[in-house]
Amino acid sequence: MWIPTEHEKYGVVLASFRGTVQHGLPLEIGDTVQLLEKCEGWYRGFVHKNPNAKGIFPCTYIHLKNAHIKNKGQFETVIPTEDSVITEMTSTLRDWGAMWKRLYVKNDGDLFHRLWHVMNEILDLRRQVLVGHLTNDRMKDVKQHITARLDWGNEQLSLDLVPRREFSMVDPDEISVTELFKLMEHRHRKKETPVPASTHHLFVHMKSLMSSNLGEELEVFFHIYDGRENRPLSERFFVRLNKNGVPKSPEKTERQCTLFVDLGSSDLRKDVYIVVHIMRIGRMGAGEKKNLCSIQYRRPFGCAVVSIADLLTADSKDDHLLKVYACTTESEWYQIHENIIRKVNSRYNLSGSNTGLAVSLQLLHGDIEQLRREYMVLFTRGVSITKKLGFSDIIMPGEMRNDLYMTLEKGEFEKGGKSVARNVEITVYVLDIQGQVMKSYVAAGSGEPGGDVYHSFVLYHNNSPRWAEQIKLPIPVDMFRGSHVRFEFRHCSTKDKGEKKLFGYSFVHLMQEDGRTLPDGTHELIIHKCEENANLQDSSCYLKLPFSKANLPGNNQAVKGTKECFWITSFLCSTKLTQNGDMLDLLKWRAHPERINDSLLKLKEIDGSEIVKFLQDTLDTLFGILDESSQRYGLKVFDCLVHIINLLQDSKFHHFKPVMDTYIESHFAGALSYRDLIKVLKWYVDRIIDAEHQDHIQQVLNATEYIFKYIIQSRRLFALATGGQSEEEFRCCVHELFMSIRFFLSQENKITSPVTQTQAVFLRTFPAVYGELLKIFTVREVAGFVRETLGSLPATARAECPLESVKLHCIAKTVESQLYTNTESRCILLPVVLRLLQAHMQEQRDLVMCARILTSMLSLVRKYDSTATEPVVSEEVDLIVDSLLVVLMRTILEITNRPQAAGTNMRLQFQDITGEFVACLLALLRQMSDKHYQQLLQAFTSKDDLRDFLLQIFTVFRILIRPEMFLKDWTVMRLVTNNVIITTVLYLSDALRKNFLNDKFDYKVWDSYFYLSVIFINQPCLQLESFSPSKRKRVLEKYGDMRVMMGCEIFSMWQNLGEHKLNFIPAMIGPFLEVTLVPQPDLRNVMIPIFHDMMDWEQRRSGNFKQVEAKLIDKLDGLMSEGKGDETYRELFNSILLKKIERETWRESGVSLIATVTRLMERLLDYRDCVKLGEVDGKKIGCTVSLLNFYKTELNKEEMYIRYIHKLYELHLKAQNYTEASYTLLLYDELLEWSERPLREFLNYPMQSEWQRKEYLHLTIVQNFDRGKCWENGIILCRELADQYESYYDYRNLSKMRMMEASLYDKIMDQQRLEPEFFRVGFYGKKFPFFLRNKEFVCRGHDYERLEAFQQRMLNEFPHAIAMQHVNQPDQTIYQAEAQYLQIYAVSPIPESQDVLQRDGVPDNIKSFYKVNHIWRFRYDRPFHKGTKDKENEFKSLWVERTSLTLVQSLPGISRWFEVEKRELVEVSPLENAIEVIENKNLQLRMLIAQCQSRQMQNINPLTMCLNGVIDAAVNGGLARYQEAFFVKDYIVNHPEDGEKIGRLRELMFEQAHILEYGLAVHEKFVPQDMRPLHKKLVDQFHVMKSSLGIQEFPAYVRASPVHFTNGSPRSSCRNSVPNIISPDGARVVARRSPLTYPAVNRYSSSSLSSQASNEVSNITGQSESSDEVFNMQPSPSTSSLSSNHSASPNVTSSAPSSTRGSPQLQDKHKHSRENSCLSSRERPVSAIYPNPLDPAQRTTPHQIGDTTLPRSDPNLSAPDKVVRPTFSSWSLDSVKEVNNTQFSDTVGKLLCPPVPPRPPYPGSSAKTIRSQSPVPTSRSPQKSSLPPFTPSPTECQSAGLVSNSPVLSGSYSSGISSMSRCSVSEASGTEATTGDHAAHQGPTMPNSVSSGSDELIRRENKTPPPYSVYERTNPRRPVPLPHSLSIPPSVDPPALPPKPHQQRTSSMKLVPASDPRRADGVPHVPRPRPLPRKVSQL
What are the tens digits of pLDDT across the range 1112-1121? Predict the structure, then answer.
């Protein structure tokens, strides 16, 4: 039976549990679980990270922990009772663990390893805490380390800053918001700007001395030296080295390491150095032999110097190798370090090139106790302390020090009868009062223990030695009196004995008879003669002698005259001894009463350090004098006391204040002093107003705090001694004193008045008195004193008065004082404080201090509301709200609207006070209850005041929600802020409903409310979905989901609006939509119905809801592109709104809107998912195309459509799909017209005219077409642009454009283009995006991409897809599967431009373009056998299943793939299949033979293999099988309907034999010698084949019909009336018309120029090129620039070699070129142009346009119609006026590609009759009608009778170039009269069998032009506005443009619609309706 657990509530999982049992709960090791029930060894409960999943698990898997239970019962919360630091550490490490793994995935190795190290460190520290064996201090340190590391990790991982107090996390609900802000700010400041330490220490570790000439022991002395003042700053650190140069005692680290302590910040400068002196212990001379002398001396060795500034940049211990220098002259040793610093190179040199001192140096910062904690190992291991000479910058009380430093400066000695100077050594002893040598009190420095004696170093043969050697005498204070120091001088002989012979001594007393110590400074000591050591045994003998020349009596001239002297410098650093006589006189005042007055006066002149050393004695002295002679010395004692108190204000002695406090509490005994102190203080206060000099009075008032301390303590002592006598008298005195104070404070003075400054001094010290007064007076009495005193200040104050800021400081200290914390006193003081605070905040003065005061006040309200009675707290909140709420909000508004200062410090300060005021406002609002809100709202007397208040508070709340209000990691503060805001808004919404609805409705207030609510919900800090599970759980437990609360409130308020809702439609649609996109189900369920409400009200008002629809669509794109919304939202939006509108009368239109918006969401979600992918792939491009088309066709949103055009364009460029990029940009180009309408700045386009933008687009598109090798399309745009330039007579740009066009022609002929393969791709299954799901597409492959590569690419793009292995259509199970299936196979394109492909003489590189461009239809054949398969002859039953796929748009286009619109399945019979097979093989043979003839083949192998394959197959049964299958009688009888097809098959077989015979003849001519046997075999087999076919002689129709070849063969019969006769050599044209017979009216082709003429012309054109940057594509220099101006008939441009065309001699060519260049177009003879050889080696490679270094895509332009109908421009309002514009196919605008350029046939050709089918001109509509047709260039020779859109004309419709704009189509008929030569050449209508242009015209009649077309453009000859460069001043009427020199403009034409070639049945294709066109916006 399951029993609820009582105490077993919380546990940790010890081992993972899979939960495989029924109701089992899976557990992971380390999870924390909450236990609900227990049953027989099993628990039931849940894991904290997923509380919704409950289950059972074994008890043995759980380790129980103690826990505290809140809200016991169903909703109980369990909190572990372990240390809060441990709890935080555990949860934080869990969060880190998940993020740590993500770091590994992201490859952030540095942070990964650092975090791993810190996590291990935290775990180790956690173990130490859990063990519980740590001391309190150690526990504190460990917790500090833990929290520091937790904060570091949180910062590195961008987690939240945790507010802590004493290492524990703080609950925001249990402290005031102001306190929370302080904690957050403190932690941030601590993290960001560490406080610079004022005390520094230098760590030195002596390692070794490296030198080649060692061999003696060394002594090394370190000290810090001030190079500016030339004095040492520290005592010396002494290290002994052995003969190897390493420390003698390596085991004793304190003898190698030291810490130079107490360096001030002023000591860390460049001219402070570490100086190292090195002495050697050994012989006198470094090179002496060992046996000369056994006695060792201290001798100079070397010196090293390093600047302390060099260590400032070092963060860790750095090893330094210091250079060691030696003196050039030994006598300069005393100042060698100075010479090195000053770089006096002549006085020192390197002691050795390889000599160096290895030391480790490190600067440490902070006080010594801090160092002991941080560098515990350092102090534990052992380090000596080297002290500073003198006290540190801050003297700490209790510091005991008594060090006497003596420096042996120099000496003057006589020779003593010797011929050379002495080698003097000084021996130093310290002797006590008995004359005994004091042990261990002579120290050379720190690091080594002190000794009994000290020997100086010896300078060789020097009678005036200078040592400058410092020693330290740490003599105890009690041994100073009577002690002296003796210096013995000895001569060190260098002879064999090496004696040290005594020759004199000096001594000095350490303390004078009056108790003063030896004064600091230099002392000249007398050298007494002495040669026997025994004479010095008794010190009393010589102590009576004079020791210093300064103390000699005047009559002792003998001693004064001696030359021998010795100088020392002494310096005492003592906390107990003094050298000041005045100090001693004061302390001994009872011995000399007459000196009291002088001593009191001199006290102010004594150094402060002397006074604080004897502080207690000095104070005892002063109060002793006051008690005994108060009348006589009272004022002077008071002044001395004031001096001492003010002395302690100095930062150097600030730490002595506690000493004085201790003295007052424990040692002060002046029970009667209070009377005198009050009396003197009142006397000074009363004199303030009249006194001329306020300095002394200000010093008195500055000491008020301690004066009151003495007064109060004295009164307490008196009361204690007397039982409380004279209490009333004391109170009266104090009241009188405060009356005097109030009187002087109430005086109004000038700003610069000394009295004002005195008032300020008192106000600064006054708050410190409160605590002392409370020791005697009650709280209410003291509060009364303070209120009256502060109330006496002048009320009228000026902003510039310094007293104002002092007042605020006083108020701040008052609020922070102990007095204000009491509730009783707070009620008394609060009005005064609020009055002053309100005045300052209203005037925006001293806001930093105002924020500080307000923070303290509100912290106290929160802190004490639990202990105080509720009415008291409520009253305080009332007072603060009434006085400050409105002012506080206004202050926040003004601060946040100020422009921020440039300085960083100013910005920080600005930010700080904003945060403090915000915290104060939040704290105040959190304290307000229902009652407070009611009183606040009732206090507004008018509706306008309430309205202003609501607007103000809503604005402030919006400011508080801003992301920049708090730092990024202050999530705790943000959550508290939001909690306060939502609570306040709930109160204020009632006021909004009551006061501003119905007839009192106020839009502005309601709008502000809704706007606040929306941005509240959308805050990043409230998006719980982005939080970690643990953080989300904590937030939900504490605050709930505040977004849902606010959403419910929005819905409630919206429902109350009623008819006023219309005011917020459509303005609030966007904000509410943004709210519904928040991924919170409850919020969405609440908010989405509002849209139904909006639709309903809009329907009532307008009869539709188009505004709602438009706004929804506009906002969705932006919001979803920001990452908002998901698939769940789309389904929820759809389902909720559909359910809501079920019963509405407008249900149908509502369903339509919802469906539209839902489909848009589908596409936007797909687009967003695709954009997230890193690389550009087909999915991303396809998704963009889908969205682009949706915006155009369904939504008609032009601006969004254009934006996505450019997004798609960028994607194509990134993927190097240059052709697709051109088609895409063409969509925007087609929306523009050649007008001067100004366009605004948009996307990356500047503000410019429509003409300029269209020109820029044209050039960009041409460049991309060039890069994509789609030059035919680029030519058309070049022509259109050239036409525009021509209309403006801009011949410079026209020339460039023609040259560019010519270069494109050359590239067509010269450069190789690859034909891409096409693949059909089916996307099946529900896992595909909507725009792909269950659809099939045809995709254009990349260069060199075959089926396998394409399949792999698609599988990479869709890694979860499954490739289907068959080509059959999938069934419904595949369609509905929750998976992705890809079906891919190759398809063959069906070209549209069959006439180009079938025309003879068109080069292959031209034909290749039309084979793979403008492809609508594709084919896939699958062979199968129907019926019984004949094993003998399978051709009988071999059928073909032919699948034809029709696309929605032709390829290439704006995408590499397009959806299949129609699928047709046709079965091809075996006979039809056989016909196709033979036709294709014949075509292949023709092409190979032609290539072989024209020498385009590098070798003959392809032709050999093809011939072999056909002949061998025919011999072995190929054609014979067809004969057996279809020529037998049974088949003919059974299939009488196939008679014609059988005949066709027979013809093809004979034709194939004929071709083979011809091919063998060609093969024989070119076959190599080694392949002759194979050729002979082929000939033999061919004869066998002929005989098997029964062919003896070819039929007449075969002989009469020539074999047409594509390249290099004779022209077809369409150009020759007599058939060509085929000869085996293929090199001659039997019947050929001379070029000279062609009429001059025909155009000449640039390709017919000879290579020499071509080069010559290109040289001419190259010189006239302009350097305008707009033309970034230059024409090819190898092509003629006349390509646009002179076009030849196709007859002229023969592809045959020049040898076959009778080319004239070279000289004739040049002659013709020169002559023709001088003739006009009419005079120029056609014969000037000669055919050009097609040998690639003879052609010059043209320059490529654009960037040729990038990979190029395949040529992608589709083949256009021969005649193109003008169509009206999309979104052009004027075009509505056109005729027949109501219905257009959705494929209007497709790029149509004619042969570029088709040239007019020569006269007599039947093609000329096409002109008769050209439409007649129609008059233009007065509206902006369809554009006139493209007019030829000025150089074209065209008579007025030529119709511009006739297929026979070049440069107009004959080339398929119509206007880029679209116009309507109308039907016209009739013929046009011709003039000139053309009339003579009109003949009968051309038969269909040979038609080229007219046939195409009929076939394309009803074909709706595809969208996005380059070719569906008519080029207007309407008046086009001039560009700015050609504009005429507005004051002059612009003249009409004159006609071109050679022709008049033709009117616009209407073309006859033609049938759709894509329809197999010939039935006209019904065009689809398209959206109504509208005006293009100014984009």
Answer: 988 888 888 8
